[in-house]
Write a structure and sequence with these properties.
Elements lengths: L2 H8 L3 H14 L3 E4 L4 H13 L3 E3 L9 E3 L13 E3 L4 H4 L8 H12 L7 E9 L8 E7 L2 H10 L1 E2 L1 H7 L6 E6 L21 E5 L4 E5 L4 H4 L2 H17 L2 E3 L1 E7 L5 E7 L6 H5 L9 E6 L3 E5 L5 E4 L4 E5 L9 H6 L5 E3 L2 E3 L4 E2 L11 E2 L5 E2 L13 E5 L16 E9 L9 E3 L3 H9 L2 E3 L11 E3 L12 H13 L7 E5 L18 H13 L4 E4 L2 E4 L13 H8 L3 H15 L8 H15 L1
Parallel strand pairs: 1-5, 3-18, 4-9, 6-8, 8-10, 13-24, 24-28
Antiparallel strand pairs: 2-3, 5-6, 5-7, 9-10, 11-15, 12-13, 12-14, 15-16, 16-24, 17-23, 18-23, 19-20, 19-21, 21-22, 25-28, 26-27, 29-30
Helix pairs in contact: 3-6, 12-13, 12-17, 16-17
Bound molecules: oxalic acid and manganese (II) ion.
Length: about 600
């Protein structure tokens, strides 16, 4: 059967057929593989990846169906400096995104992608973000020359020919074109992790809702359903269509009486979002269940309530620091069918990383494929090493995680990694103030993105690297929601697990003990009398935060909620300065909130 015949029996969608033909012409692959998402296909691609030494199989008894990939040392994280939002006008991308004129960018991309798949196979992946039977889900097609991407996408998104059935003759899709950017000319030998770091481009066209990614095979740069589609492009769709596409986990919380509420929470990258999403509550009778750990698509429905779906199908978590102590449910989720990237390999063909439980092994093969022993003093796993594990393997996956309607969100939580100033938990005074709090998130940086670690950076709504349009307009979109009639707006909270004392020690134990904070939030949402006003928002009333059985001194507790007017005045100045970035597209509500905060601090 010719490849054209194959294409015609694979999809009846004319737009899709013609798009694939254009891409074949442009990229000039040696072969085309139209993916089905089947098990056999997966195994075939895994075998290919083993033969190219991109992955190694882990011991099937210890870690069934699981593999370790090692990337090129120059391709280890998201690359914000090479990420572009190519809206028609520069103004529409805003000051927090890189922009290029779409016409110029298209020319650049045409040159980059011309013949880029020579000597390689082009894979065409049909995938759905969200449950296939949900009216809130959206279909994407990714073209890639990386079989590692195909295998990872099969975990992270719903990849199957059923997607093509849903797409039908006329359906629309988000088109994503990805290449590692290393054509194999004249039989040139391949390397285990082809990439082209000097020419990396991760490009989004919000007008045509299309994505082009060149030169990186890593994570969100290459698995286009995640950050590129479900956040950058989806945020534009959400703005146009009146919904919310957010960098938020979704969790269900049940109290000892069996009452359940769902919450969505936004934290900048690597602030313990996955840990919170699948936490084991330490408080007796309280239970957390996980709907998603990274992205929420939320719509107000007929009853006026906000419902969220998790568009993803898996967890792409940061491995170092994940352990049975910090996150047992993540550890159980990755017991099988998991692709690890840039973690270390043990002598019995299992995986290891810094922060894992138990004794540190005396010998490992590190993420750079070198023999490693503790005396080297280097890290055996890269600090942004990842696991891609199917969400349904999480022992506390929520029974409603694939509910096509979504789950009703009653509270939204913002957080960051802040050593000083920011209280353990506080609640916004109202929706407008809550949106201001989301816009004011800042956090000390980690290794999830390139750049220096430990510096404070503003990350509004944890969307700084992921908002596909002008961030000032994004704030406005959130403010406008609060003005609509007939909506039951969720309450908005801020948390900070990371406050330190003057010696530099954490004031709060974190992890499962964060259930105490969730309990307080739950009770506030129930309307219980648990809060009192402070200049920055509502904080827990004396004794309303349950610290029973926790060895925490009164002094510690006081420090956790201390609001130092002088420090906050400094913080306010910092915020004012940050918001000037948005010039005339800063919504007036932000200025009002800055003024109100100033007044409250002065009183
Ligand atoms: C992620 C991130 O990988 O936010 O989820 O960086
Ligand atoms: Mn994330």
């Amino acid at each position: 059967m010719s490849s054209i015949d194959a294409l015609e029996s694979w999809t009846s969608n004319l737009k899709l057929r013609s798009w694939i033909k254009q891409k074949i012409e442009l990229c000039n692959p040696d072969k085309v593989h139209l993916c089905t998402g089947s098990k056999d296909e997966h195994q075939h691609l895994i075998n290919t990846l083993i033969s190219t030494k991109t992955i190694v199989a882990l011991d099937p008894d210890l870690r069934p169906g699981s593999y370790l990939a090692r990337s090129d040392p120059e391709d280890v994280a998201r690359v914000e400096a090479s990420t572009f939002i190519c809206s028609e006008s520069k103004d529409d991308a805003g000051p927090t995104n890189n922009w290029e004129d779409p016409r110029i960018m298209r020319e650049k991309l045409s040159a980059l992608f011309k013949g880029c798949m020579k000597g390689r196979t082009m894979y065409v992946i049909p995938y759905c973000m969200g449950p296939l039977d949900s009216k809130f889900s959206h279909i994407g097609i990714e073209i890639t020359d990386s079989p590692y991407v195909v295998c990872s996408m099969r975990i992270m998104a719903r990849v199957s020919t059923k997607v093509l059935d849903v797409l039908g003759d006329e359906g629309d899709f988000i088109a994503g074109t990805h290449s590692v950017g290393v054509p194999l000319k004249d039989g040139k030998a391949d390397v285990s992790w082809p990439c082209n770091p000097k020419k990396r481009h991760i490009v989004h066209f919000p007008t045509t809702k299309s994505i082009w990614s060149y030169g990186s095979g890593y994570g969100g740069n290459a698995l286009l359903g995640k950050k590129c589609f479900a956040l950058r492009i989806a945020s534009v769709m959400a703005k146009e269509q009146g919904w919310l596409a957010e960098h938020m986990l979704i969790l269900g919380l049940t109290n000892p009486e069996g009452e359940k509420k769902y919450f969505a929470a936004a934290f900048p990258s690597a602030c313990g979002k996955t840990n919170l999403a699948m936490m084991n509550a330490t408080l007796d009778g309280w239970k957390v269940e996980c709907v998603g750990d990274d992205i929420a698509w939320m719509h107000f429905q007929e009853d006026g309530k906000l419902y969220a779906i998790n568009p993803e199908n898996g967890f792409f978590g940061v491995a170092p620091g994940t352990s049975f102590t910090s996150n047992p449910n993540a550890m159980y989720s990755l017991r099988k069918n998991t692709i690890f990237t840039n973690v270390a390999l043990t002598d019995d063909q299992d995986i290891w990383w810094e922060g894992m439980d138990g004794k540190r092994p005396d010998h490992l093969v590190d993420w750079l494929s070198q023999d490693w022993s503790p005396s080297l003093g280097s890290k055996a796993a890269h600090s942004n090493a990842r696991f891609a594990a199917p969400a349904n393997q999480c022992p506390i996956i929520d029974p409603n995680w694939e509910n096509p309607k979504g789950v009703p969100i009653e509270g939204i939580i913002f957080g960051g990694r802040r050593a000083h100033n920011v209280p353990l938990v506080y609640e916004s005074l109202d929706w407008q103030h809550g949106v201001f709090l989301g816009a004011s998130i800042s956090s000390e940086t980690t290794a999830a993105a390139e750049g220096s670690v430990g510096k404070l950076r503003h990350d509004p709504f944890a969307m700084l690297p992921f908002c596909g349009y002008h961030m000032g307009d994004y704030f406005k979109h959130w403010f406008e929601i609060g003005k609509k009639q007939g909506l039951s707006l969720p309450k908005i909270f801020c948390v900070n697990w990371f406050r330190k004392d003057c010696k530099g020690d954490f004031l709060w134990p974190g992890f499962g003990e964060n259930s105490r904070v969730l309990k307080w939030i739950f009770e506030s949402v129930q309307g219980q009398d648990v809060k009192e006003k402070s200049p920055v928002g509502f904080i827990p009333r004396l004794n309303s935060l349950d610290v029973s059985g926790l060895n925490i001194s009164e002094k510690h507790l006081k420090n956790l909620f201390e609001i130092d007017a002088q420090e906050w005045t400094h913080e306010l100045g910092e915020l004012k300065n940050f918001f000037t970035l948005f010039k005339d597209r800063l919504p007036q509500e932000i200025s009002q909130e800055l003024e109100s905060l100033e007044k409250r601090l002065a009183n």
